[in-house]
Specification:
This protein is of the alpha/beta class. Helices cover 37% and strands 13% of the residues.
Amino acid sequence: NLWSMQKIVLFMKDKLNNMITENFDKFLNSPYNVMKPKRITDYNKVLPIVELYPCIQSEGSRQGRPTIAIRTTGCTHRCWFGEGGWCDSWYTSIHPEKGLYNFNDIIKIYDQYPYITEMMLTGGSPTMHPDLVNELTHFAHERGIIITIETEGSHFIETDYPIGLISLSPKFSNSIPEEGILTPKGATVDQRMIDLHNSMRLNKEAMKKMIAYHTDYHFKPVCNPIEMPDIWEEIEAFRIELGIPKHKTWIMPPGDNREELIRVYPMVIDFCAENGYNFTGREHIIAFDTKRGV
């Protein structure tokens, strides 16, 4: 009888997984794949935010500006770049930590640094939290703050106020983890993790809606074209398909530590100079290596 019950449980689990997968695919392929956000009403409720701190924006078209970093937890992806390592914020994606901050904490830090008029909303995948993103657009509108949202492009959120800058960093085939390798905390990558990573990896319709709706954007692929020519062909085909001009493109070298970035920087810098692309470094890693909250 116990064996029969176990078989029934396994059967129902498989059926449920299949239903979730089918509905997820329908959602992705639907022309109505638009997230309609609400407002946050309880400013004391703990939100999926694991880091909140002042820093310098170190990537993309607004690099060098003082900003407040708001890092959400939870992600649709499980990025691994081979020698470039795992996602540099793996504690929000592969092993997501619990949130620590509420909306009042965000208000307090801007009150503490009134001269900062930038916000870097990053993750993880911030668009997994549409109500939070929407509430931040209200806050930014009231205070004259420009939001940069770091996104892989998996969800389009029709926020009440358009976001200032979409930092679009889609994840290409060089981000797919390999079965059998170990995660930062020693778990073994299996096919389920790979399927999860790929399920929302290139949601082009959502990305097109982001670009059309929000105020501005840049395209920030992670690649070393010299050592990854096949991946670069994939990225360039994507750029052309979406009609993204070169002057909106910022190539960022892969690497989750200072040593690896110093190795690949010269190759990527020379490639950008010779082919008319913008280069963006990862200066927080160059300056602080693997330290968090910087």
